[in-house]
Every structure is written in structure tokens, then in C-alpha cells.
Amino acid sequence: MGELYEARAWELREMLRRREVSAVEILRAVRERVREVEERVRSYITLTLDEAERAALEADAALAEGRDPGPAAGIPMAVKDVLCTRGILTTCGSRILENYVPVYDATVIGRLRRDGLTMVGKANMDEFAMGSSTENSAFGPTRNPWDLERVPGGSSGGSAAAVAAGEAIWALGSDTGGSIRQPASFCGLVGLKPTYGLVSRFGLVAFASSLDQVGPITRDVRDCALLLSLIAGHDPRDSTSLQVEVPDYLKAMEGGIEGMRVGVPRELMQEGLTPGVRECMERCLAIFQELGAEVEEAGLPHLDYALSAYYIIAPAEASSNLARYDGVRYGLRVEGEDMLEMYGKTRARGFGAEVKRRIMLGTYALSAGYYEAYYGQAQKVRTLILGDFRKAFERYDVLVSPTSPTPAFRLGEKVEDPLAMYLSDVCTIPVNLAGIPAVSIPCGLEDGLPVGLQIMGKVLDEATLLRVARAMEEAIGFRERPPAGRGVG
User: I want to staple 319 with a disulfide (CB 3.0 to 4.6 A). Which of 105, 241, 330, 363 is the partner?
Assistant: First the structure.
């Protein structure tokens, strides 16, 4: 297993219960790792090591008394800074919220606190989750532990980098168009976007409300299943939360995939894939067949319009959601001669370039005379895409594709070309439009950089998704870690 900071959560849970290690010892190993590499990786906006130490001491005290401290106890976690944490800065990577301290916890944070949350810190992110590289953060970019000259992906890049670098054992991210899966792919990790409504959005600072979803970033599928089981479930404070029973994901993921039908959408296997990504995909398809699954090419004819529809719907919802940041109730306030000038100065100084770009795009799409031509049409396309997935899942148990067309790109490579940046999410965005679950698992390397396999499932069928991911994880046997010399070592 190596160092404690390299362990998986389930391994540490077993060691804690056997009293082979203490929660304080685990935290100490992670804390030393943070001190060693954080200056170079920049995974965090705010560190909460004192709070983490209190949680670790409580976990050890409970274990000493023979009590169960909770399934998350003693396992250091990074939390994306888009989730509200009571009494702790929640910035969303933006200057407009750089001093905002919530008075309540997001539902997922509250549930994890009940289960013994040991939070190392609030992880860096693209401002208001708008980006694919974590270069849009007002607090500077995060770097990929596999190669410090490359991006970790976005917008949950800080969460993924923290886990990959050993600065946390597991992490929470949010996914609006691929913001969990793409960073997981770039950093050699497992990342799951759950079915829309399975995990509460209460306390998740909104980007695009019909697309956002909270999910886990972990080192393997078993950790992913465990963390999902802790955060999933109905929440009456979230009107979009589904009233469903949460299955035992750990139990459900066991077993093989013989006889399953796997579809490969041709629309996600076209030009734009690098040779290494295509080679990894072909190897994965061969492994599916070796495991007894039937693999066929599938057609999702409206996927070609997904990117266009997404970049109308998401900015339109962002324009509405971000209207609340006006300098009146909370966040940054820049005084002006009158109220309108104060509004303008506050938002001009508080928002970064990408957020401003998307607000303007969304406001235009919602404006009188253009609403039906843009937003209305995009919603119709979304319905067609949802229909494509429903029809496909009548035949297939899962659909598979690359998570990203490329491995991690260089810092600054796409900053001046927004369209090129947006295209890095071309494989992940359709999943959010349809509201279905999808997971990315590492499946190989291209030029020493991780490549991700995306597995997409039916609505609320995370159990099958995790079962397939677990079987493929074992068969692929990806064990690589960021190499010494190129990354943080």
C-alpha cells in the first residue's frame, strides 16, 4: 500500500477498525503531504486542518470506547469550494464571494459530518464551476500532479488534484457538464456523476440548476460506491430531490458482466480523439468482450447538437442564478454614486472573464425576441437527446465512450480559445442534458498521462454502473501513480 496518504478509503476504514492505525496518524500523514506538495499543486483555497484534527481525535476516542465513529470517520476528504460549509469560507473560486462564510451546511456536508467527516480543506475550482481546467479560479490555477505543467481538468480540478497528489484520500466535486468525470480522467481517478436528483443540491451554490449534481472523486470504484452511499438519498429541502430508496452500492457492484450488452455511441468515437485515447478505447472494448459482454456500435443521432444546446441552457441558467450577486445581501460590495453604479462596479470587479462571458451569453439567450429562438430551441434539442438515450437503453445495459477526447492539456494552452476549451467536454455534456448517471475510470496512459473510460447508465441504475466499472477496473488493472520527477512524486 505504501504511505498512508496513498491508501484507499476502504483500506483505511478496515485498518482503523482493527486498530492498526489511528485517525490522527492518517491525518498526520496527509497533513505532511499537504505541507510537502501544496505549494506546487495548489489544490486548496482554504485548509481546515484544525477542524480535521478535532474530527480525527473524536474518531479515535469513539473507537477506543468501542463505538462506531461513522463510515467517513478518520478518512481525510477534500470538499469542492462550491459546497456550503458552516463557519468556513465558501468562495466558489470567485472574488465576489472571497469573504463569504455560510451559516449552514450543504445537505451532503451535514450527512458526512454525521458520519464522521474529516475535512482537510475546500478545494480549488473554476469560478462558479465554469471551466474545464481550473485555470478560471480567482485564486490561481491548480496543477496536475502527473505533470505540473498541465491542467488537472475542471471545474473540480482542485478536488481531483488533491486526491491524486495524496493531499486527501477522497473528495467531493460537482458536475454540470463533466466537472467530476473530466478531472478524474485527467488525474487517473474514479469520478461519478449520479442521476440528477439522487444527491441533494441544497447548499450547492448553483451554476445551472437543471444540470448540477454533486458526486465523488476517489481512487477506486469501491471507494466511489462507499462515498455515494453516504451522500445519496432524498432531501425535502431540495425540490428536485428524488424520493427513492438508496441501494447497497457496495454489495451491488460485486459480480461479473457476462451477458451484458454494451453500446458504443459512434457520435463519441469520431474525429478529435487523440491516437492514445482511441487505442485505450479499443483495448477497453476488447476487455469487455473478454469478460463476456456483447459490444455493439450504437447511434445517438442528436448528440451532434449537445454541445450547442448545453452552451445555451447552462449560461441561461447561470445568468439567472448569478443575478443574486449584487453587493446588497452578501459577498463583495463596491460602492458607487447610486444603486445601479454599485451593481455594475461590484459585478465588474467580482466576476472573472469566463463568468462574465457566460452571463452575457445567457442573458442574450433569455432576452425578449430571442428566448424561443435560442433557449426554447435548446430545450427541444435536450428532449431529443434524452429520447436518444432512452431508446438506446432499451437495448443496452450501459453505453461507453472516452471521458475526454484528449489527456490533460498544458496550462494556458486553451485559455485564449474558449471553443477549444468547451470541446474538451464533448463526451461528458450529453450525460448532464439527459440527467443520467456516468462514471469515469482510468483505463491507460498516453505519453505518461492518464486516459479515462466513461461508462453511462440508465436513470437511477448506479448499481449496474458501479458493477460494470468494478469489473473493468479489475480487468484493466490500472495501478499507475503520478511519477517522480514529472509530477509531485
Answer: 363
Provide φ and ψ at 145, rounded to 5°: -60, -20
**Which of 235, 251, 78, 96 minimizes the C-alpha distance to 163?**
78
- The SS3 of residue 147 is strand
Is residue 80 part of the annotated active site? The answer reads yes
| Residue of 22, 43, 137, 155 marked catalytic | 155
Q: What is the pLDDT of residues 190-244, one digit of tens each?
A: 999 999 999 999 999 999 999 999 999 999 999 999 999 999 999 999 999 999 9
Residue 128 lies in a domain: yes
Determine, yes or no, domain membership for 469.
yes
- Distance, first Cα to last Cα, the chain: 15
Which residue segment(s) compose the domain that 421 sits in? 4-260+408-476
Report yes or no: 194 and 242 within 8 Å, Cβ to Cβ: no
Which residue is catalytic, options 94, 133, 137, 179?
179
Instruction: Point out the catalytic residue in the list 22, 43, 80, 122.
Output: 80
Q: pLDDT per residue over 23-58, tens digit each?
A: 999 999 999 999 999 999 999 999 999 999 999 999
- What pLDDT, in 10s, does the model give residues 337-388? 999 999 999 999 999 999 999 999 999 999 988 999 999 999 999 999 999 9
C-alpha 148/C-alpha 43 separation (Å) is 12
User: Is residue 321 left, alpha or beta, with left meaning phi > 0 and alpha meaning psi from -120 to 50?
Assistant: alpha
Q: What CATH number has the domain bearing residue 225?
A: 3.90.1300.10
CA dihedral 215, 142, 168, 457 (to 10 degrees): 20
Q: Give me the pLDDT at residue 411, please.
A: 97
Catalytic annotation on 241? no
Query: Is the entire prediction scored with pTM above 0.85?
Result: yes
Q: What percent of the chain has pLDDT over 70?
A: 99
Is residue 278, in this structure, part of any structural domain at all? no
